[in-house]
Amino acid sequence: MKEFNAFPEHFMWGGATAANQIEGGSDEGGKGLSASDVYLFDPNTPKEHWSDQWFMMTHAQVKEAQDPQSKRFYPKRFGIDFYHRYEEDIALFAEMGFKCFRMSLAWTRIFPNGDELEPNEEGLAFYDRVFDCLIKHNITPIVSLSHYEMPLHLITEYEGWIDRRVVDFYLRFATTVFKRYRTKVKYWMTFNEINCVKHHPYVSVGIIEEGYEHLEQGKYQGAHHQFVASALATKACHKIIPGSQVGCMISYQMLYPYSCHPDDVQACLEQQRVSLFFSDVQATGRYPAYADRLFKEKGVVLKKEVGDDEILAQYPVDFVSFSYYMSSTVSAHPENLEGAQGNLITGGIKNPYLPSSDWGWQIDPKGLRLALNQLYERYHKPLFIAENGLGTGDTVNPDGSIDDDYRIDYLRQHIEQMKEAIADGVDLFGYTWWGPIDIISASTNQITKRYGFIHVDQDDCGQGTRNRSRKKSFFWYKKVIASNGSDLA
């Protein structure tokens, strides 16, 4: 008899990365510059300002990054050299027993500027080799089409996703890779954390905020074009790859009212809608009823083309995926309350009942169970946890080992709550730990904010051997996968 809260027999265990944080090789194989390739790391900048660029990119920074003579350090152009070491890294994933690997394609490897008529064969061939290596090791690729890797040319010359023409450029890219990898990839995601446009519009939809007159209009117009592009990509994928599955992906925090005061409860509801708006559109195929008021209050008037609403209705996504790192609390009157500084998505109020990571992210495993139930009851579609992880510092022992019990504890507690959600009736088909190998942080552009089961000998300035080694968590996760989540000791 099956255990009541056991994982499904073919549950997809694995890890997740993004091309811009792992690959490197930015000047090889015909690759162009992406939105993420302009992010700097400067150790002389105070730590509290390391993520400033993530939220506010300037025209001067973008222009300087395009200068081939610039001496500044752009970490995401180097990553951890997966471009040359993918066989070694995938072999380590296979040693852990990965069933799947969630990765992204660098749009700029295939269409360096984004608006070319023909793809770059060298880029296509690189991903052929990566997929062939994964398949050799019986690891299923789950591929994000766009994970903060928009071609920089589309930002500087077209103003990003605000320009309707970018929908066609994206579809050319999507159709190209669907046809090329139709026998190798069945699972796709259209946009990574599509709802994050609300707090970092530059890397999400290509808006350089500096001097931008109506930012909310730009955010939601860009998002609308992404919704249409996602629906059309879903249509194309189903036609080109029979049996394929296409998902949306949002960044999700479980939000709690700070108190039982009705004002706090209402503020929490409204804040959750700001995130769920994006998956509401992609999963249900229509704009939610509350959108009219949301747009009115923000002064947004969407420009739609004839047939857009019908496209959204006809081609919703097949599954809903999300990242989950933390929860937050919301108050209608936060002025005299302590903020949760590390909660990048909502800001929010510090929850006095929860511990925090070294980077101020409040750790809440039970919030994952709540989030899974909430999303499943809302959409009635299969769920996939595309990201979950703990970014923290690691200490290398004299013998080279790393005793990261804190990472094991974090993962154990979240897996336990995943089991509870499955027992609740949630259809959860997979889980990929964010950063199974140490990678460049999305927000702070450093590597010493480490997530991996695999250590990379590299510092924040890109120095080191880049040699890989197994942490204690490597062996623990291997045991978890081998037992299909039953052995968490």
Automatic annotation (TrEMBL):
Its EC number is 3.2.1.86. Keywords: Glycosidase, Hydrolase. It is an enzyme of class 3 (hydrolase). The keyword Hydrolase applies. Pfam families: Glyco_hydro_1. The keyword Hydrolase applies. One of its GO terms (molecular function) is 6-phospho-beta-glucosidase activity. Belongs to the glycosyl hydrolase 1 family. This is 6-phospho-beta-glucosidase.
